[in-house]
From TrEMBL:
Name of the molecule in the record: FMN dependent NADH:quinone oxidoreductase
Subunit composition and interactions: Homodimer.
Annotated Flavodoxin-like fold domain residues: 5-195
The species this protein was found in: Microbulbifer aggregans
Family: Belongs to the azoreductase type 1 family.
Cofactor-binding details, from the entry: Binds 1 FMN per subunit.
Catalytic function, reaction form: 2 a quinone + NADH + H(+) = 2 a 1,4-benzosemiquinone + NAD(+); N,N-dimethyl-1,4-phenylenediamine + anthranilate + 2 NAD(+) = 2-(4-dimethylaminophenyl)diazenylbenzoate + 2 NADH + 2 H(+)
Required cofactor(s): FMN
Function statement: Also exhibits azoreductase activity. Catalyzes the reductive cleavage of the azo bond in aromatic azo compounds to the corresponding amines. Quinone reductase that provides resistance to thiol-specific stress caused by electrophilic quinones.
Classification via InterPro entries: Flavodoxin_fold, Flavoprotein-like_sf, FMN-dep_NADH:Q_OxRdtase_AzoR1, NADH:quinone_OxRdtase_FMN_depd
Keywords: Flavoprotein, FMN, NAD, Oxidoreductase
One Pfam assignment: Flavodoxin_2
Annotated GO MF terms: electron transfer activity; FMN binding; oxidoreductase activity, acting on NAD(P)H as acceptor; oxidoreductase activity, acting on NAD(P)H, quinone or similar compound as acceptor
Length: 197
């Protein structure tokens, strides 16, 4: 069964523009993939704990030597990675906060970037291990910053680091400028959904 993993990061949860675009894509994808399923992870509703020294040590401690607390931490991280492994498509709804991604998404990335599990180091450099997947990213911004902004580059670089190189980023910018700019940006993004899905 085909599976889509939808990751929402807007602090407005389902009401956020990025979440609504991700929802629209998921609905269109389901229409084209009867019998498939969508899993949603809302990082605003259920934030991932920030990475601290104890959590990092849980990741690096050999499995057979972990305490019960460390095992719970590592198991939760593995659950997040397994969601990606089991999915054919990832859809991320990402607003711009202070010129970057929401901190909840950065924390999520911290938990799925695991040496030997989601990537490995080789003589030729790092190799992502979560291959064969497509990612569709909706980035919403109040202002206009362009497709080459560092926020977009960061998301693309991280996904590539874990092995996801088929990445489509759809920007909806100028949402805070005026009603006309907002409507045009959202309409353009929705038009692209039909093409990409």
């Amino acid at each position: 069964m085909a599976q889509l993993l939808k990751i929402q990061t807007s602090l407005f949860q389902n009401s956020g523009q990025s979440s609504q675009l991700a929802d629209a894509f998921a609905a269109t994808w389901l229409e084209k993939n009867p019998g498939a399923r969508v899993i949603t992870r809302d990082l605003a509703a259920e934030p991932i704990p920030h990475l601290d020294q104890d959590r990092f040590q849980a990741f690096t401690t050999p499995a057979e030597e972990r305490t019960a607390e460390q095992k719970a931490v590592a198991d939760f991280s593995q659950e997040l990675i397994d969601e990606i492994k089991a999915s054919d498509v990832l859809v991320l709804g990402i607003p711009m906060y202070n010129f970057s991604v929401p901190s909840t998404l950065s924390t999520y990335f911290d938990h799925i970037a695991r040496a030997g599990i989601s990537f490995r180091y080789t003589a030729e450099g790092p190799e992502g291990l979560l291959k064969g997947k497509k990612a569709v990213v909706f980035i919403t911004r109040g202002g206009v910053y362009g497709e080459e902004h560092a926020q977009s580059a960061y998301v693309r670089q991280f996904l590539g680091f874990i092995g996801i190189h088929d990445v489509e980023i759809i920007h909806a910018e100028g949402l805070a400028l005026n009603d006309e700019s907002k409507q045009q940006a959202l309409d353009s993004a929705r038009e692209q959904i039909a093409q990409v899905a």
